[in-house]
């Protein structure tokens, strides 16, 4: 019996999927996300570059462009990940490919969360403190802030690329590897994983609550626009909570199961649940363009007129042209 349990535990440590049918389902979900999200993000990216010319128009478009860029780069990892799952492996057997995948996954997902958070902070200052000077308002006029965000994320990917992280083996019970250095490394990468999600979530909650309260108290202005703004910030919270919080909770449960050295079966179930909820987090690539881009009537009108002109009423002119000008007089936006 001990040999059987030992072999089963070794499968978990060697990153072999112990529920192959379930992992094939995970792979199918990733393939569907890839098929749906790739053309959507590619079309939005094309619009930002060739139609909106984001570097010349609204400075907030720079953040949205980088958000879409991070999502589309993350999408290219999904086919490789899906192939591994179909092959019965939780990660690539090739160490170089495995680490390259982890680098891309964590860098681009981290960038997606970072630009999502920065955009929400910018919206917070525009709505709650419209006349107050702030560092972000000064920095966002320069595209260098986007480059700085990408550079700051690079060091955070180093702990996540260490061996076995992708197979959820932090703080595993193994006497020969029970060293202070290993414990420190394991703790570092777990801190990176949790702070990458929990800190932005706290910021989003704070910004969303204050934005909603500010808009509800506003009595002057276009009520339709105000309702749309409330819908937008609430949608951000829903998407973030749906995509990232479940995998964070699953990761926490997995670590507790491992530290308490529960049965191999319990550890395996926790690892399988974590892998499945990580797949759910990739839905962010599909939902980001819908929430951040299509909640804008100007962007939606421009998108439809370029890619689905048959849906645009005859004679309708997009509110925003390729140069960022509008056919209507400029108005103060609450978003």
For the record, the CATH architecture stands as Up-down Bundle
| Count of DSSP H/I helices | 14
Element string (H = helix, E = strand)? HHHHHHHHHHHHHH
**What is the CATH superfamily?**
Rhodopsin 7-helix transmembrane proteins
Reading off the top of the CATH hierarchy, the class is best stated as Mainly Alpha
Coarse shape: globular
| Range of helix content | over 70%
Rg measurement, Å: 22 Å
Number of domains: 1
Q: Tell me about the largest β-sheet.
A: none
* Oligomeric grouping of the chains: single chain
- What is the number of beta strands? 0
Strand content: under 5%
Which structural category do the helix and sheet elements fall into? mainly alpha
Write up what this structure looks like.
- This is G-protein coupled receptors family 1 profile domain-containing protein.
- Its main location: membrane.
- It is found in: Membrane.
- The chain crosses the membrane at residues 25-50, 62-82, 102-125, 145-162, 191-209, 230-257.
- The chain is mainly alpha-helical and 335 residues long.
- The chain has a single domain, classed as Up-down Bundle (Rhopdopsin 7-helix transmembrane proteins), CATH 1.20.1070.
- The chain has 14 helices and no strands.
- The longest helix is centred in the middle third of the chain and has 38 residues, at 180-217.
- The radius of gyration is 22 Å and the shape is globular.
- The relative contact order is 0.13.
């Amino acid at each position: 019996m001990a040999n059987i349990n030992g072999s089963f535990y070794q499968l978990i440590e060697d990153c072999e999927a112990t529920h192959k049918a379930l992992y094939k389902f995970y792979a199918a979900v990733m393939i569907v996300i890839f098929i749906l999200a790739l053309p959507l993000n590619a079309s939005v990216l094309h619009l930002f570059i060739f139609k909106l010319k984001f570097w010349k128009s609204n400075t907030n478009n720079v953040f949205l462009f980088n958000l879409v860029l991070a999502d589309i780069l993350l999408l290219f990892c999904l086919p490789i990940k899906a192939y591994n799952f179909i092959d019965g492996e939780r990660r690539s057997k090739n160490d170089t490919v495995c680490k390259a995948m982890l680098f891309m996954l964590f860098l681009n997902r981290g960038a997606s969360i970072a630009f999502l958070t920065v955009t929400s902070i910018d919206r917070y200052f525009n709505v709650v403190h419209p006349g107050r000077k702030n560092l972000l308002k000064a920095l966002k006029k320069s595209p260098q802030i986007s480059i700085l965000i990408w550079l700051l994320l690079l060091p955070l990917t180093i702990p996540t690329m260490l061996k076995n992280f992708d197979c959820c083996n932090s703080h595993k019970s193994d006497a020969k590897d029970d060293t202070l250095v290993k414990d420190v490394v394991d703790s570092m990468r777990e801190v990176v994983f949790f702070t990458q999600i929990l800190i932005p979530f706290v910021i989003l909650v704070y910004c969303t609550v204050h934005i909603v309260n500010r808009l509800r108290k506003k009595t002057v202005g276009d009520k339709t626009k105000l309702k749309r703004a409330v819908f937008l910030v609430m949608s951000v919270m829903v998407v973030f909570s749906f995509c990232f919080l479940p995998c964070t909770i699953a990761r926490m449960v997995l670590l507790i199961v491992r530290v308490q050295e529960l049965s191999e079966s319990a550890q395996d179930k926790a690892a399988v649940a974590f892998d499945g909820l990580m797949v759910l987090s990739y839905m962010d690539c599909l939902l980001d363009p819908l929430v951040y881009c299509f909640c804008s009537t100007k962007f939606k009108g421009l998108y439809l007129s370029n890619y689905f002109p048959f849906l645009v009423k005859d004679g309708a002119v997009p509110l925003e042209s390729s140069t960022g000008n509008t056919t209507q007089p400029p108005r103060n936006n609450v978003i």
